[in-house]
């Protein structure tokens, strides 16, 4: 009931804040430039993904959205880390797949081990983005292979890499053109996020991060058994929710992690639900017209990025809104634009909430710690003079 109340409250805040933010949508400035950069990057990523034969074009579009930053150097760094992480995760999955596919215990152990380790270093490591995508890709490839034990996981792994390459290349091209044209006239605002600050100051060992990564690892390890019991086909998308939601600044781990993670789960659920619903309505009302669907993509990305850039309590919802919106609305082929694949992927993303929340609750009530034990003793923060 508490989760439901939070979801309703978040939905109310989202509706109110969205109306307020949309009033500033047409206001010129750096914020508007960033939003149109994302729109162009997403469209170009879709073109590249179709040209390269990607299986899940919506994920390429989302890569084109997520890599975009205010300067081409930042976009390039983020894109390279995304590619490195995806390549490492896919390669590791290809090596282990013949040994663990078809064996739920070994598959679960692999997800727990690699997923937990990569998330831990994503929390405390200097190259957190690469670590995150190593774990994400590894889990996605193996879990997808779980559904087809007699087939090779190579095609899916190749498609994941193609999707990342298409989105990253599109983003860097758009970012480079914008950086050396329009953005040269704008003041550069390179603002370090709390997560980046915490990582830059973190130590290799962090007790709170280890416990946090273990919780995610347990949730990932449940996926093969859920597959055996239920046969749900979209569980590879659930691993994305588990890894992404658990990726929080290490400073948030000083006290109980239940509230911030539950809040992120609620915001992800609300954002994805609203984005998926609106994308579904657009897809049905457009009668699969490529022109209308493309126009819908532009509007959705523009609005979602505008909300994400609001620096308000609903900014995280903006990211999740775009994720679901693109996954549902962007078809793998415009000649046969079907609703079912996107809905299936969205259901998998939302099902990750169902898997993760019970693990968090059980961990919180079984191993409740004194907050003072998880504070400065776990991570020594250097002073500003060091």
TrEMBL record:
Main localisation: membrane
Membrane topology category: Multi-pass membrane protein
InterPro entries found in the cross-reference section: Memb_transporter_dom, PHBA_efflux_AaeB/fusaric-R
Record keywords, A-Z: Membrane, Transmembrane, Transmembrane helix
Subcellular location: Membrane
Chain ranges of the Integral membrane bound transporter domain: 248-355
TM regions (residue ranges): 79-99, 105-123, 130-149, 161-182, 213-232, 238-258, 265-284, 290-307, 314-334, 346-367
Cellular component GO terms, alphabetical: plasma membrane
A Pfam family that the UniProt record links to this protein: FUSC_2
Highest taxon above the source species: Bacteria
Record keyword Membrane present: yes
Alphabetized GO MF terms: transmembrane transporter activity
Name of this chain's protein: Putative membrane protein YccC
Organism: Phyllobacterium myrsinacearum
């Amino acid at each position: 009931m508490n989760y439901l109340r939070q979801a309703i409250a978040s939905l109310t805040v989202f509706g109110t804040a969205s109306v307020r933010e949309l009033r500033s949508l047409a206001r010129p400035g750096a914020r508007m430039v960033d939003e149109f950069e994302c729109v162009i990057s997403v469209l170009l990523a879709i073109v590249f993904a179709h040209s390269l034969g990607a299986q899940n074009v919506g994920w390429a579009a989302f890569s084109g959205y997520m890599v975009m930053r205010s300067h081409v150097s930042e976009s390039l760094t983020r894109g390279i880390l995304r590619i490195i992480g995806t390549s490492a995760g896919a390669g590791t999955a290809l090596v282990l797949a013949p040994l663990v596919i078809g064996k739920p215990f070994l598959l679960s152990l692999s997800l727990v081990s690699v997923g937990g380790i990569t998330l831990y270093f994503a929390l405390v490591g200097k190259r957190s983005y690469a670590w995150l995508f190593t774990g994400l890709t590894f889990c996605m490839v193996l879990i997808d292979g779980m559904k087809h034990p007699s087939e090779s996981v190579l095609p899916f792994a190749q498609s994941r890499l193609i999707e990342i390459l298409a989105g990253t290349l599109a983003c860097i091209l758009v970012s480079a053109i914008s950086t050396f044209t329009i953005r040269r006239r704008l003041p550069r605002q390179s603002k370090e996020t709390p997560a980046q600050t915490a990582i830059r100051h973190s130590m290799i060992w962090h007790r709170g991060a280890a416990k946090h990564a273990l919780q995610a690892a347990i949730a990932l390890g449940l996926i093969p058994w859920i597959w055996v019991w239920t046969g749900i086909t979209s569980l590879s998308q659930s691993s994305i929710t588990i890894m992404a939601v658990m990726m929080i600044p290490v400073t948030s781990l000083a006290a109980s992690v239940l509230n911030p993670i539950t809040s992120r789960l609620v915001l992800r659920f609300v954002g994805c639900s609203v984005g998926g619903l609106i994308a579904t309505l657009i897809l049905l009302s457009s009668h699969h017209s490529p022109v209308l669907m493309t126009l819908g993509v532009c509007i959705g990305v523009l609005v979602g990025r505008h909300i994400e850039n609001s620096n308000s309590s609903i900014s995280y919802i903006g990211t999740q809104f775009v994720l679901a919106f693109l996954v549902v609305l962007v078809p793998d082929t415009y000649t046969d634009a079907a609703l079912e694949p996107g809905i299936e992927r969205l259901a998998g993303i939302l099902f990750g909430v169902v898997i993760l929340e019970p693990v968090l609750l059980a961990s919180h009530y079984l191993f409740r710690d004194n907050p003072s034990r998880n504070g400065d003793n776990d991570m020594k923060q250097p002073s500003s003079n060091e």
